[in-house]
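Hi R.,

Quick one: here's the Pecanex-like protein sequence you asked about.
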Amino acid sequence: MLNRAERSQSTYSALERLPLTTGTAAQRVLRRRERKIKYDQKKFFVKKFVRKKWTYYRFNLCGLPAFPVKVFYTKQDLSNLLDITASFSNVLISAVTCGLISLLSAYLLTLQRPTAIFGYPEKSFLFSKWILFLVGATCQYSTIKSPIPDVMSPGHGYAFSVAFARPIYFIFSAIITFILVHVSFSMKSNGGMTLYGCFFIDIKIVACCIELSRILLYIMPVLFMLGFYARLITLLNWSMETVEIVFFGGTGSSSLKDSILVLLRSAACVIPIGILNSLSFKNDGSLEKRIFSISSSLCLTLAYVISRASNGNPTYDLIALQRIFGFRKCDSKISFLDKNVVASAHHRLESSILNGCIILLIAMLLGIANVFEEIKSMRKLDIGPLQISVFNIVILALLTVNGFFCDYLLPRLRSQNPWIIFKHPVLRTPEYKKFEVNSAAAVMWFDKFQFFMTILMKNLLLPIAFMIELWSASDSSYFESWSIIGKSMFFAIISFSISRRFFRDCEYQWLVLLCSYLLVFDLQKYHITEPILVTWFLGNIAASKVLGLYRRLCFIYVHIMPCASTWGSAFHAISQPICMPHSGWMYLQAFISTITSAPIKPLGGASVFLTSYVRPLRFWEKTFQTKTSGDERLQSQLETHRRRNENLQRNSIFYENLAISLRNQLAGDIALGRFGNVKEGDVYILASKSTATSLNGLLQIVELGNGVVSFQLRGLEFKGTYCQQREVEAITEDEPPTARNRLCFARSLCCLRSQKWVFGLSTFFKNLLMTWRVVQKNYVMPGYSICDSSTDFLAMYDYRKLVKSSFTRCIIYFAAKYERLAELLDPKNELMKTLSRENYDSDFEVVTSVAFSHNTDVDYDLAQAGVSKVQFMHHFSDWANHCYSMAHPEETECPANFITLVFGLSVVGRKTISNASQAGNTADAAIFLNGLYQMFQGNIMPDFSDEWVFTDDMALLNEIVAPALRLAIKLQSDELRKFTVGEANVELTFSKLWKEIEAARKTVICHENDPKWREAVLNNEPELFSFRHIVTEDESSDYRLMMLVRRQLNFKIIKINSEKIKNPERGSIQNARAILRNIINSSCDQPIGYPSYVSPILTSYTSLHEGVKQLAGEEVSFTGIYEGTLRFIGDCLLSCISCNSGIGLPENIPLSSVIRSTTTEQNQVAQTWIGSIPTTGGENDAENNLDGSVSSIDTLSSLSDHDLHRTAVINDSNQVLSNLDGFRRGGPQFVHWAKNEWRNSGGARSWVEWRPENGMKGVIVWGWYPCHRLPSKRSHIHTAILLLKIEEDSKTFYVPIQKPGLIMFDSDDSSAVSSNADSGGSEDENV
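And here's the predicted structure, written out as tokens:
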């Protein structure tokens, strides 16, 4: 139906078709119609577009209802203009950054050029206000509306780092511009800075930098749009890590938080050194020299302490510091896996503090004593224009020889292929030719040699050389034009950087120092005054860059070689040779990437942007730990399509255990030289040589410190793609034998005809064109040997019958060992009553179910068509009697209720297998396996007719049925099914089966999703067993029996070129044996890679390594010093005060305190003075025996009073001291005799022919005790001596005898003890 406007339009068209002869009336009608149409069209437009109802949001300014503001925007319009930020902190930061941008922009407009450059006159304004305001406005707007990140960014959407990236870049660029302008004006008046005779920092160079910063500020929006700038977090992490490495001699860190913490720690160490340097550089007096000696020794001490701290995990050091000060609240947050590492960090920190105090004291005393001044003034040798002291030459020669052996010769001789010429290492370990190793790797003589020589170079030779050069540089004329503050801070930075670097990693420091001497020697003829210390500092920076450039060039050579490439298509065969002429451009890119720590192709290939992936050491952005099944949501665990991911997660636990093993021994193995030359950033592949353990992990060294190593491990799939398997075969296969007719290096180099030890020429060039090298062939490390066997044998009925029989025997075993068995077997118990109602107590009971079959159940009765109790008793009653007698030896007969109980549980267990498989009949092997698997993982579903099993709650199912099934599968896996019950040796077979079951129970048997499994693996349990369900590619089910045995595993260590990780071809899956592209790609972060396990940044200490402990001993700690002091005092007291001269212990000292302050040997000595206390116990035994023997006797004085006037019988006549009445040769008498009568009758001289014998009885009249305060009662030995008065034949004899040789008793017990003594004496005489 037409509306009004359409009708008017149709009428107008009809009138328009009328002829003009119709007269004026028709024309008037036409004009009226035109006006009406126009009016209708206008009214329709206003109604449709103008008269729209607008909605708005009411916003109160500052939260006050008195100031409302109407916002006429929809939600979509607001989201297009502003970011939805509910945080007040984001709003506050946005306001602050916008204000800073405005202030800095206003200040930038006032800056002037320091000199005329690029056609601009001097003192002209730098910035144009319109362009600068436009750039500042874009940066301000990005705080309220975050721009879309570039395609190379790892994350998309709103992010704090993306929203505030442009403002922070603008602020940093403005600040750098301010600094450059002010430096340029100061240099204009003071002159530039020269280095080796050249203007290192000139006003022209600074002016060029100012113009460059100006241009970068102008084009900042364009650069952000192209993605030239890195992400903010990446930039901050890279810049802080670079400053830490270059200026403070540090190493890599694990996160931005750790980078900030480590950088603040280094700055806190440098600042006090700079303050002391500024005080020492004011004058040249003796006081200033002493201050400089304090600052230099403090620098050496702080560098030593910081080098032993961890950059990868500084949290450990913070916890250790809190422990030292007595704060242990954070200990509850430490996991059981980190307790050992935290304890080691605690001991290391205490050792660092103590050793640092020693270093500080020694270095300060040497400096105050002017030892280094004397070294400078020693006799010097004129080597050309350079004068070097003899002492410097000796130190340099020792460093060169030591470094050549430790850093070059020994690593080459120990590598798998020395110089890529020899097939086998020259220096081998005993594990080299062993297929399986049963013990830890032995510490060889070359391990000890390299370990101790490295310690000598790191802790003695290099510190001496450093202190000499530091004192020499303090008097250098190079710093005469410098200000005191600049000189002091420069000295603080370079001295701290050099000392920390050689303490942290002394590798090739001797070479840098030697090159510094050679460079200074070569430049002396040009009157260069730079000290060697400055050259040493700059040489460390240049050496790291040269090493990085060398790695990049080596990778480029291998990458562009046609013979090393795998051409998967015609395109590769054509494109690869065409790219070779562009290798010059690749070399230029390698140089640029070396300076910026960027990928190897920063301006070409897939990585288009220069700074998007800057990484000084780490090559992965994320730091996360692989989630276990216990960390996921329940919904994710129940989804069937995630079964493949679950299999990967189950395999990841083995890599986690491998990471823990590496944490315990990696730092020690690197210190022993087993990894060769190691630098931070190196990447290794650990390839398992065992076919039963398919562990292939990528190991990256993040931090290398003084006895500390931080690393990350990435585990690969057990079975990867075809191309990945080919690369795994390339790194695991042995070297092929060389043909006899080929040219070999033995003939050309050594004139040898045998090719047993050397490669052929073709093999040499083939190995040369590889980005990886085999470092060690047999690297021994504890781990789990994984043996997974198939369950195809259960397809046969006989084996299923054995499994069910073993299941029943295990039910009987666990029922006999059940704790509440006596309560359950009580006839009045509700369980027994229920079994009686179910007729299980009847001997003729028959249970029928589809779960039973004569093919799989030995107690199946074909006549009754079910499982009968008669058949059950026929097959299992003897085993039940044996189990019950073994579990309850006090009972002679197995009760009938026990047979009833185990029969019922056996029926329930076998029926539960069919119920768990969700199928009635278990005749099919797949259904039977599914039932076994469901019950193994704890999915127990009894039949509704077996609800009697819940009478005792779930205890019968959880403690008898479930563990019985798991143990039965384990026994079947161990082939214990061969133990059949015979007629002749029933008891023998049952006893053997019982022992085997007891031994099998020591194995951890559980499902892999059970938390006990992960806990057992991480706790290094010796044996584990599990049942795994695997969904194959064709969606079929495969069941595997997994047996894990803890033993020593053999790994092959392959060192790969770390620049391969930065290669832009990370997305390629093409097979490349020369560069291992697939292995590296699969270890990357998702979505590029698919690692099976990714560990967090872990820290390893050398103190955790058993071999290093044997060589270097335990760490020195406050507790060790305290205990050592107590032991020393105890030794002095127990050895020095045994003579009668000196001061003994007070009489009122508690005996327990004397015992507690001694070691085990001293406890035995202390126990001997108590007499009847055994001397074989430890510290706790000594205290317990002390309390039981002397009861309320607490002091020496009370003990001596307790022994007097007691009757005693001689039990051991060998304890008699017959010469105690004499004198020492050249000294006083042994003991002080209180009465001359006792002395005249207390020795062999007065006894003549009479001798004391066992069984003689007397009265104790005196006693001498060790450590007694009174000389008259002090023993000269570590044993109490008692004087026994014996009357025999009207004669009196005094017998001094050691207390252990007596049996003492009171007068009431004299007769009983006397008879015992007589019998004891006769036994001794008979013996």
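DSSP finds 46 helices and 23 strands in the chain.

Cheers,
M.
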